[in-house]
UniProtKB/TrEMBL annotation, chains A, B:
<keyword id="KW-0460">Magnesium</keyword>
<dbReference type="Pfam" id="PF02779">
    <property type="entry name" value="Transket_pyr"/>
</dbReference>
<dbReference type="Pfam" id="PF00456">
    <property type="entry name" value="Transketolase_N"/>
</dbReference>
<dbReference type="InterPro" id="IPR055152">
    <property type="entry name" value="Transketolase-like_C_2"/>
</dbReference>
<protein>
    <recommendedName>
        <fullName>Transketolase-like pyrimidine-binding domain-containing protein</fullName>
    </recommendedName>
</protein>
<feature type="domain" description="Transketolase-like pyrimidine-binding">
    <location>
        <begin position="352"/>
        <end position="535"/>
    </location>
</feature>
<dbReference type="InterPro" id="IPR033247">
    <property type="entry name" value="Transketolase_fam"/>
</dbReference>
<dbReference type="InterPro" id="IPR029061">
    <property type="entry name" value="THDP-binding"/>
</dbReference>
<dbReference type="GO" id="GO:0005634">
    <property type="term" value="C:nucleus"/>
</dbReference>
<dbReference type="GO" id="GO:0005829">
    <property type="term" value="C:cytosol"/>
</dbReference>
<keyword id="KW-0808">Transferase</keyword>
<dbReference type="InterPro" id="IPR020826">
    <property type="entry name" value="Transketolase_BS"/>
</dbReference>
<dbReference type="GO" id="GO:0046872">
    <property type="term" value="F:metal ion binding"/>
</dbReference>
<comment type="similarity">
    <text>Belongs to the transketolase family.</text>
</comment>
<dbReference type="InterPro" id="IPR005475">
    <property type="entry name" value="Transketolase-like_Pyr-bd"/>
</dbReference>
<dbReference type="GO" id="GO:0006098">
    <property type="term" value="P:pentose-phosphate shunt"/>
</dbReference>
<dbReference type="Pfam" id="PF22613">
    <property type="entry name" value="Transketolase_C_1"/>
</dbReference>
C-alpha cells in the first residue's frame, strides 16, 4: 500500500513542479482517501462515466483537483490519458485538467472552486437520489440507490454556504450522503486555529450528522475504508461526517505548513521526498507496475456494475413497464410533449401582480410534470409557487409542529432562510443528470444577491435551473432600500449564459416560461412584481418574449421610441399617450423583457425594433440604475441611487415615475436632441 | 409590568392596523425583551444618541423594526416623536420609521433587513469596542467599555452569514457581545422545524458561546433581565447567547402562527386582543400614564451616564494628555495630516503586480495610522496587505499552532475563509463611530461576490470601508473561470455610492488610495492584478485618477480613441502604437480607472476626454463583459463569456487580446464606422 501512496504523492509533486504552478499540498495529504474511495468504496464505471446510478463524487475543495485527476487516470477513465494528466497548468486550452474540476470533463460531476459550493452541490445530488428512489424504486428494484461522497477542506467548513448546507442536510436526514473532511488544520494564512477554534464534531452533531473520527488519514487506508463503509450502512439515520486527520504536503519539507497549499515544493524538496521514500531522485512521473496492477481491476469492476444495473433495469421494465418508461424518459431528460398546452391561452384582464401571473402560468405544469422540483427560501406565501396537491420534500418520519408532513417523493422544497444554499443545491439537483430534475428556486429578487455565487456557478456550468425572483424593482415598496434591487439586474444581465427576463404582464409571463423551459444553455431567472400590473391585452405578445424586445405599439413618423420592461411596462404606454396628447410628440412603444435574447437577434431585427439607426432616439423607463441600457437607449428614466421605504402606491411618484413628469422630461430631452446638444453615443439621465 | 407589555403589544398591533401593512408578530412577541433591554440592561442616552460609549443595539431581524421604534419613542429619543411613530408605512418620505431600521435615524446603529447581516454587524461593533478598549483604556479608566446587544430571529440563525459570524465571534471570545435569540419557532413558511431541526444551543456551544435559556420570554421580564445581566459579567470568557422562547403575535388570535409575521392582524383580532386585556376596544394608540411614568426616568438616567463618562474622560485627559488627544481625534474621525505624504512619490520602473503596487502605496500608512484595521479572508500571502510589525487581532490568550499570537490591540484581522462575514463585520467596525476605525478588507475580486450582500449594505449606509480586490480580470489565470470575474465589475459599477477603481500601475494605485481615503460617501473597492504590469511612467498620473478617466496620450487628428483600464491599461498603449505603425491609424489613448468618478465630472470634461461628440469613435479594451461600457465607447474588445483555465501568459491571447489581433479588429471597425455602417448609439463587440 505504501508504494501506492508514495506514487500518488510524487505524481502530484511532479505535476506541480512541471510548470512551477499548482496546489500540491492537500492532494498529497489526501492520498489515502483517494485509494479508499476509488479502489474500495465508490461504485462507478470508468468506461461509462455517466452511468446513471453511479456514486457521485464532489471535490468541494476544488483547488485539490489533482487529487481527482490523478485518481481518474489511475482508475482508467479513458479521456484522462497520460498526456492529459501532464497538461495540468500547461498552455493547452483543451486540457482536461483545469485549475479546478470542471463539469464538462469525464468523471467530474460538478465544477467546484469557490469554497463551500461543493458541499451544497453534494446535498443536491443526494436529494436527487432520495427523490428518484422514492419515486421509482419498487420492492426488489433499487434502480436508483447511488451514494454521494463529498470531500471538503478546512475552508469549506468555514464558508456560510457550507454551514447552511450542513444544517439543511442534517434536517433532511440524507443517509446517502457522506462528507469526508480533509482535516489538515492548515489554510493559506497558517494554522486554522488562527481564525477557527470551534468544536467541529460537536457542531456537526448539533446539525444532525453522525460523526466518525479517523485519526490517521495519512496512511491508515483501512481505517478510512472502514469509515466510508459506514456511509453505506442501510441502518444509518443521518448523513455521515468523517473527520479525517491528514497532513498537508505530507512527506515533504513543507509538511504541515501553509506554504504547501498553493505553490510547488521546489525541485530540491521534491527530490528529498523521493530520497526519503527510497526512490530514484532523478525519475519523474513514475508509476511502478505494482501500482498499475493495483488499479487494474477497476475498469472491469465498473463494467460489472453497469451490467448488473442494466439487468436490474430490464427486469424492472418487465415488471413495471409504464413506470420504467417514465423513468427512461426522465433519464433522457424528456419533458412530456404536452407541457406547452398547459400554459393558459388567455388571462384575466384585471390588474394582476406578475408573481400571481407566474402562478397562473406554471402551477399546472408544476402539478403535472414531475420533472420539476420547486423550492423557496421561506417565502411560500409571497412567491406563489405552490400548486394543487403539492407534496413537501422532507424526511417521511418528520412531523413538524405545523403538521405539514412530507416525504422524499415530495417536489416542494422548504429550503429555510438559506438563499445561497438553495441555489447551490439546485445546481446539484440539476447536475444529477441533465433535465432529469429541473429545479425551480424562488425568493425576492434582492435576495438573489445572497444566492449570486451559486447562481453564477449554475451559469458557468450551463445547468438548467429556473429562478423565480419576485418583488423586483422599487415596487417592493415599504420594505425599503434593503429590499429594492436597483442594481442587481446589472449583474444578471452581464452574467454569461444567464437568461434574465422581466415579463410585463401575464401574457409575457407565459412567453417567459416557454423560453425558460426550452432554454438549455444555463439558468434562467424570471423576475416578477409584488404589486398588481395592468394587463396590456392586445399589445403584449407571448411569442415575442423570445426575441428579447419587440414593438408594442408602432407609430408612423415617430419622434421617439419609449421603452419599458417588466413591472413598469405600462408606464411606457401611458407616457406615449401623454406625449401625444399633451406635447404633440409621437412615440413608438417597445417592450424589452430580456437583454440577452434581444442581443441574440440579427442586427436587422434589432434595428427594426429600435430604429435608432434611422435617427429616432430611444428612451428607456426602468426603476433600476441605467447601467447596461446605454446599449439600447439614448436616454433613460432610471434610478440614480438606492430606493426608499414607501408603500408601493407612493414610491414611484417619489422617484419621478409619474406619467406627466416623465413625459415632460422626455419632451425636454427631445428638444436637446433636435438642437444637436447631445453628442453621438451620449446617454442622458432624465 | 403586565400593563407595560400590553401597551407595547397593542401599540404595535395598532401601528400595523393603521395603514393595513407591517410586521406585527415578532415585535409583539418580543415585548418583554424590549422592557428588559431599554428599561434595565442597556446603557444609553436618549438625549445624546451618539454618545461614544453607549451600548450598541442591533436588530438583526430588522422586519421587527416597530420593536425598536416603539422603544425609542417610549424611552424618550427626541427625534422619535409621536407623529413620527405614527408615520410607519405612511406616505411620508421623511418618516423615521421605515420598513427596516435605517442608520440615518437617531438611535439606530445600522441598517438591517437582509437577514443575518445584523449579527455580523454586531460582531464588528463588539470588535471595535475590544480594539479601542485595548488601545486606549488604562487602569481605572475604562473609557471604552460599552456592550453590544443583538436581537436575532429564527431566520438570522439559518443564514450563512450568521453562521460565519457566530463561528468567528466565538473564536474571538467577544465577551462584550450578547446575542438574544427571539426563538418563536415560526417563519414565513410555517413552523421552523419544517426546515431546521438542529440543536441550536449545542451548535452555539460548539462555536464557543456561552448559552443561557429563558423559558418564558413572553412575560418573565425578570428572567430576561437576569440573563442579560450575565452579558455584563466581567468574568465571562465567551460571548453570550440567550435562547429566549417567545410566541409570535402573542395575545392575538394568530399567536404562534406564520400569518402573524408579515400582515396586520385585522380590526376584529386587534379588538379581541384589547378585550382579552380588559382594554377599551375602541381606543387606539393608547399609552396609560403608569406606562409613561414607567419609562420616565430613562432620559435622566442617560444624562447621568454621559455626565459620568465625560468626567472620566476629563480625568483621563489630565492623566494621559497625549493619549487622550489621540482618542479625541479618533472620536472625531480625524486622520493625521501627514498620511498623504506617506504615499511614495515614485515607484520602481520594472513590471509590478498591482497587488504589490498596492502594498508599496499603503503599507506605510497602515503601519503608522492606527485608524486602519486591515483584514483578509485567508489570503494573506496573496493580497499583500501585511505591514511592518503588524499585530494580529485575536484574543490575547490564544496560542495558535502556527505560533502567531495576537491581542485585541492588533489591527490585522484573519477573518478565515468567510468573505461574506468579513464585509459585514467591516460594516460594523465602520459603524461604531464615523472614521474612528476605517476597516480594509481583502480577497480575490471574484470572492467579493460572496461578500456582495454586505458590500451593498455598506454602500447603502455610506459606510467608510475600503475593499482591496486582488486577482481581478482573466489575468487570474490558471485558477480558471470560477476565479475570473468577467461580470462582477458590472455589479460594483452599478451599485450606488460604491466607488470601484481599477488602477493601471503603481502611479494609478497611488491615485486610487488618495481618492479612497478621502471618499466619504460609501465603500471603495480597489481592484488590482495578480500578475506583473508594465509601469507607464510619464503617462499615468495619480491625480487624474480622481477624474475617473483621463487622456494618457493625446494625438492630433486622431481617428480613434483607444481606452483601457487596470491590469490591461498597457494594452491600449500597445494597440495605439500598432495602429499607427501597421495600419496608419492615429489613436488617442485614455485610461479609465473609474466609471463613477468620470460620470461625476462636468460634461465638458467628459467630452474633452472622450471626443465622441466631435466624431472620434472610442474603443474600450477590458477583459470583462462589455455591459456598462456602451455609455463611453462605440466598440469594445471584451469578454463574451466566462474565462478559461490557462496560465496568465497564455490566457490573454486565448481570448484575442494580442496586440496585433486587437489592432486589426479596431481597424476593421473604423472602416465600418467611416462607411456609415454603424448606427448612432450602436455598440460593436470586436
Amino acid at each position: 500500500m505504501q508504494v501506492v501512496l508514495q506514487t500518488f504523492r510524487l505524481l502530484i509533486a511532479d505535476l506541480c513542479q512541471q510548470f512551477g504552478m499548482g496546489h500540491p499540498g492537500s492532494a498529497i495529504g489526501m492520498a489515502a482517501l483517494g485509494v479508499a474511495l476509488w479502489k474500495y468504496s465508490m461504485k462507478y464505471a470508468p468506461h461509462e462515466p455517466d452511468w446513471f446510478n453511479r456514486d457521485r463524487f464532489v471535490l468541494s475543495n476544488g483547488h485539490a483537483c489533482l487529487f481527482q485527476y490523478t485518481n481518474l487516470y489511475l482508475t482508467g477513465y479513458k479521456a484522462m490519458t497520460w498526456e492529459q494528466l501532464l497538461s495540468y497548468h500547461s498552455e493547452r486550452p483543451d486540457s482536461l485538467c483545469p485549475g479546478h474540476p470542471e463539469i464538462e470533463h469525464e468523471g467530474i460531476e460538478l465544477t467546484t472552486g469557490p469554497l463551500g459550493q461543493g458541499i451544497a452541490n453534494a446535498v443536491g445530488l443526494a436529494m436527487a437520489t432520495k427523490h428518484l428512489a422514492a419515486t421509482f424504486n419498487r420492492p426488489g428494484y433499487d434502480i436508483v440507490n447511488n451514494h454521494t461522497w463529498c470531500m471538503v477542506g478546512d475552508a469549506c467548513m468555514q464558508e456560510g454556504v457550507g454551514c447552511e448546507a450542513f444544517s439543511y442536510a442534517g434536517h433532511l436526514k440524507l443517509t446517502n450522503l457522506t462528507v469526508i473532511y480533509d482535516n489538515n488544520q492548515i489554510s493559506c494564512d497558517g494554522s486554522v486555529d488562527l481564525t477557527n477554534t470551534e468544536d467541529v464534531n460537536k457542531k456537526m452533531e448539533a446539525c444532525g450528522w453522525e460523526v466518525i473520527d479517523v485519526e490517521d488519514g495519512v496512511n491508515d487506508v483501512e481505517a478510512v475504508v472502514s469509515a466510508l463503509e459506514k456511509g453505506r450502512d442501510p441502518n444509518r439515520e443521518k448523513p455521515l461526517f468523517i473527520n479525517v486527520r491528514t497532513i498537508i504536503g505530507v512527506g515533504s519539507a513543507v509538511a504541515g505548513k501553509a506554504v504547501a497549499h498553493g505553490v510547488p515544493f521546489g525541485k530540491d524538496n521534491v527530490a528529498a521526498m523521493k530520497k526519503a521514500y527510497g526512490w530514484d531522485i532523478e525519475r519523474t512521473f513514475y508509476i511502478p507496475d505494482e501500482v498499475k496492477s493495483f488499479y487494474s481491476d477497476l475498469p472491469s469492476r465498473g463494467e460489472q456494475h453497469v451490467k448488473e444495473w442494466n439487468q436490474l433495469l430490464a427486469s424492472y421494465s418487465n415488471e413495471y413497464p409504464e413506470l420504467a418508461q417514465t423513468f427512461k424518459d426522465r433519464m433522457e431528460g424528456k419533458l412530456p410533449q404536452d407541457w406547452q398546452w398547459m400554459i393558459p391561452q388567455a388571462f384575466p384582464s384585471e390588474a394582476t401582480p406578475s408573481r400571481k401571473s407566474n402562478s397562473l402560468v406554471v402551477s399546472k405544469i408544476l402539478a403535472q410534470v414531475p420533472t420539476f422540483m420547486v423550492g423557496t427560501a421561506d417565502l411560500t406565501p409571497s412567491v406563489n409557487l405552490t400548486y394543487k396537491d403539492y407534496e413537501i420534500f422532507n424526511p417521511p418520519d418528520l412531523v413538524p409542529i405545523s403538521g405539514a408532513k412530507g416525504s422524499y417523493k415530495g417536489r416542494y422544497i422548504h429550503y429555510g432562510i438559506r438563499e445561497h444554499v438553495m441555489a447551490a443545491i439546485a445546481n446539484g439537483l440539476a447536475a444529477y443528470s441533465p433535465r432529469t430534475i429541473i429545479p425551480i428556486t424562488s425568493s425576492f429578487f434582492m435576495f438573489y444577491l445572497y444566492a449570486a455565487p451559486a447562481v453564477r456557478m449554475g451559469a458557468l456550468q450551463k445547468l438548467k435551473v429556473i429562478h423565480v425572483a419576485t418583488h423586483d424593482s422599487i415596487g417592493a415598496g415599504e420594505d425599503g432600500p434593503t429590499h429594492q434591487p436597483v442594481e442587481l439586474a446589472a449583474l444578471y444581465r452581464s452574467m454569461p449564459n444567464m437568461l434574465y427576463i422581466r415579463p410585463g404582464d401575464s401574457e409575457e409571463v407565459a412567453g417567459a416560461w416557454k423560453v425558460a423551459i426550452e432554454y438549455d444553455d444555463g439558468p434562467c431567472m424570471i423576475s416578477v412584481s409584488r404589486h398588481a400590473l395592468p394587463q396590456l391585452q392586445g399589445l403584449t405578445k407571448r411569442d415575442s418574449v423570445a426575441k428579447g424586445a419587440y414593438v408594442l405599439k408602432e407609430e408612423k413618423d415617430a419622434h421617439v421610441t419609449v421603452m419599458a420592461v417588466g413591472a413598469e411596462l405600462s408606464f411606457a404606454v401611458n407616457v406615449a399617450k401623454e406625449l401625444d396628447e399633451k406635447h404633440g410628440i409621437k412615440a413608438r412603444v417597445v417592450s424589452f423583457p430580456s437583454h440577452k435574447l434581444f442581443r441574440e437577434q440579427p442586427l436587422s431585427y434589432q434595428r427594426e425594433v429600435l430604429q435608432r439607426n434611422v435617427g429616432i432616439p430611444a428612451v428607456i423607463i426602468e426603476p433600476y440604475v441605467s447601467l447596461g441600457w446605454e446599449r439600447f437607449a439614448d436616454a433613460g428614466v432610471n434610478m440614480k441611487g438606492f430606493g426608499h421605504s414607501l408603500p408601493g402606491k407612493y414610491i414611484y411618484n417619489h422617484f419621478g415615475f409619474e406619467t406627466d413628469s416623465m413625459a415632460k422630461r422626455i419632451g425636454g430631452f427631445l428638444k436637446d436632441w433636435k438642437a444637436g446638444n447631445i453628442g453621438r453615443g451620449e446617454f442622458v439621465e432624465l
